[in-house]
Structures are given as structure tokens and as C-alpha cells.
Amino acid sequence: MWFTLASTALETAIGLAMALILCESFSGRGLVRAAMLVPWAMPTVVTSKMFAWLFDGEHGIVNFVLSHAGLTDHNVNWYGSPDTAMATIIIADVWKTTPFMALLLLAGLQTVPKSLTEAARMDGAKSWTIFWYIRLPLLMPTLLIAGLFRALDAFRIFDLVYVLTGGGPADSTETLSTLSYKVLFSTLQFGYGSAVSTAMFITEGLIALGFCICLVRQIRRVG
């Protein structure tokens, strides 16, 4: 649940900022939009290995940059310590999946009538006022749908965690997907593993139900 909440919130916030930038007209916008999708298009296993090298406790470039910037006086064992392993996975997931959120929100922003924003500018409204009172209310249904997709995907995450940490250290990054895999195929406890999988399915159903209730209320309010 902590991973789902943190990754979904960060990806939504950063993705919204990226969508707002890419919605504006500037030179090379098409190239930037295409380049934005590269992290999302990369296989998750490749992303996991890349971040394993970046955050390596001995020779990782992150420790190199931090030590030369004077921010740390020793190497940090990022995904080998229970204190930092979850944060490392969240950073990797945010880097990979934020473009997906930005793409969905960009599509939603492009449905906002330009006449509304132009009229607001003519009346002297600032950019923040236009965003808060015009763009954001009209974007809320798209925001909820994107959040629903991302939350469900984050809750059942397996490959990134399995490749990067394997659920460790000390089960600090264990998810229901990795737990059910270990129980089913490592310890061969088929009953327990099936129960974990069923609990994960029911929880995802409850998450989807919560988002759908909020979505219906928002659509009725806008309508």
C-alpha cells in the first residue's frame, strides 16, 4: 500500500507538470513528446538492471555524484538496506511510468476548450488561476482514470521488485505479487499462495471501486 500510494502520487504530480509543459507550443515539441516515451517503452527488466547499476552501493553513479557534491561522506547501500530499498524502487518506478501518466493527462488537457482559457486571459486571469479554476476541474475525470490505471498497476507490481531486490532486504520491499510467487513456487504452499493471490485480487477490486465512486461523483458534478 505504501508503494502504491507513494508511486501513484509522485507519478501523477510529475506527469501533470510534464503534460502542462507539453501542452504549450514551443520549438521541438514533437521531438520532446517522442523522447518522453522512451522510459515507458523500455522493458521493466532493463530498467531494473539500469537502476541496479546506478544505485550500486560500491560503484554506483548516484553515490559517486553525491560524494563529490559533498552530500554524503560514505557510500549508501541503496537497495541493500531496509531503510532505503523501498525509496530506490519508488524512484525507479516513477522514472519508468511517469511518461504514461503524462501521456494520459496530456490527452485530457487537449480536450479543454481553448476558448475558456483565452477568455480567462482576456479577463486578466493569471496562469495559476486558469489552471486551478478551469483546467483542473475539467481534467479531474481524466486524472481519476489515470490514477485508477496506475494504482492498480502499482499494487500488483512484480518484475521491478523481483529483479532489483527480490523482495528484500529483510522483506522490506516485499509485495503481494512477490510474496505469492515465493509461497507458490518456492515453498509449494499452494493453499496459502492462492489465498494471498485472492486477497490481492479483492484489494484491487476495492481500489477500483473507490476510484469509480469518485469518478462518477466528479462526472455528475461537471455535468
- CATH class descriptor name: Mainly Alpha
Gyration radius over CA: 21 Å
> Helical content, roughly?
over 70%
Tell me the count of domains: 1
Number of strands: 0
What is the name of the CATH superfamily?
MetI-like
Q: Give the N-terminus to C-terminus distance in angstroms.
A: 32 Å
Specify the number of helices: 11
Low-confidence stretches: none
Mean pLDDT across all residues, rounded?
Answer: 90
Query: Which term fits the overall shape?
Result: globular
**Strand percentage, roughly?**
under 5%
Order of helices and strands: HHHHHHHHHHH
Query: Structural class, judged by helices and strands?
Result: mainly alpha
Major sheet size, sense and barrel closure: none
Per CATH, which architecture? Orthogonal Bundle
User: Which fold name corresponds to the CATH topology?
Assistant: MetI-like fold
Please characterize this protein's 3D structure:
The protein has one domain: MetI-like (MetI-like fold), CATH 1.10.3720. It has 223 residues and is mostly helical. The model has no long low-confidence stretch (mean pLDDT 90). It has helices spanning 2-22, 29-36, 38-41, 44-54, 61-68, 85-109, 114-122, 127-155, 159-164, 176-186, 190-222. It is 74% helix and 0% strand.
